[in-house]
Amino acid sequence: MSEPATLAEVLESLPVEERFILTMHYLRQMSPDQIAQLLKVPEHAVDSVISSGKARLSQFLGL
């Protein structure tokens, strides 16, 4: 039986851009607008990554 994945392991498994956006949003508490400005992308693109990343993290962590 395998041990559950840690948050660090799950984050490491994500694509770099997704990991960056999720880290900035959840750990650095940046708003989607701030992240979008930093990356020079539309805010809806950041919102989409946050939404899909949150779902993926929940799935990996069994939440």
Give me a quick take on this structure.
This protein is an all-alpha fold.
Order of helices and strands: HHHH
Largest sheet: none
Span between N and C termini?
19 Å
What structural category arises from helix and sheet content? mainly alpha
State the total count of DSSP E strands. Answer: 0
Write down the overall geometry: elongated
pLDDT under 50 segments (min length 5)?
none
Mean pLDDT: 88
How large is the radius of gyration? 12 Å
InterPro entries: RNA_pol_sigma70_r4_t2, RNA_pol_sigma_r3/r4-like, WH-like_DNA-bd_sf
GO molecular function: DNA binding; sigma factor activity
Pfam families: Sigma70_r4_2
Domain RNA polymerase sigma factor 70 region 4 type: 7-57
Features:
4 helices; mainly alpha; elongated; 63 residues; 0% strand
Write the layout of secondary structure elements.
Elements: H1 7-13, H2 16-27, H3 32-39, H4 43-61
Care to describe what's here?
With 63 residues, the protein is mostly helical. It has a domain at 13-37 and 53-63. The protein has 4 helices and no strands. Helix 2 crosses helix 4. The protein starts with 6 loop residues before the first helix and ends with a helix. The mean pLDDT is 88. InterPro entries: RNA_pol_sigma70_r4_t2, RNA_pol_sigma_r3/r4-like, WH-like_DNA-bd_sf.
